[in-house]
Design goal:
Elements: H1 5-30, H2 36-68, H3 76-104, H4 110-147
InterPro entries: DUF2798
Keywords: Membrane, Transmembrane, Transmembrane helix
Protein name: DUF2798 domain-containing protein
């Protein structure tokens, strides 16, 4: 897990980018709208929104909830699963809203579109985060910590 602010920012960035890329790809395929132009056209704005939501809204709340759950906090795996699950729930809550607003705007069908998007996104995002993105990004973070990538000083 991240031990410094720099590591935390690095970890948040790689997890957020990986999830936005994967979920954008998933949603475009799911709705029969995949093209590289659509994917890359929405990737940067989606990443910016997701990153800001993660850093300023979801992360602190998700961690508070995870630490309040009746789990064995001494077991690292239990804490990883609790925090990751709470993060996914929060991010799916907000990013599904973002996706519906971007695709359809605020129409009278907003709630039905939102419910469908929330369920479809949660079904994909939770296992994606717990089984693939989370472990891969934690491995990248661990390698960076071992090799001191984030703490090396520039040579002039």
């Amino acid at each position: 897990m991240p031990q410094t602010k720099k590591e935390s920012l690095f970890f948040t960035t790689i997890v957020c980018f990986s999830m936005v890329f994967s979920m954008s790809l998933y949603n475009l395929i799911l709705h029969g709208q995949f093209s590289w132009g659509h994917l890359f056209g929405g990737l940067i704005p989606g990443f910016i929104v997701a990153f800001l939501l993660d850093v300023f809204v979801v992360a602190a709340t998700a961690k508070k909830i995870a630490f309040a759950l009746p789990i064995n906090k001494e077991k690292k795996l239990h804490m990883i699963i609790a925090i990751s699950s709470c993060m996914v729930l929060g991010m799916v809550f907000f990013m599904s809203m973002y996706g519906v607003v971007i695709q359809f705007g605020f129409t009278k069908e907003f709630l039905s579109y939102y419910r469908a998007a929330f369920v479809a996104n949660l079904v994909m995002a939770l296992p994606l985060q717990l089984l693939l993105i989370g472990p891969v990004c934690r491995m990248i973070l661990k390698k960076s910590q071992q090799n001191n990538w984030l703490n090396e000083k520039a040579i002039d």
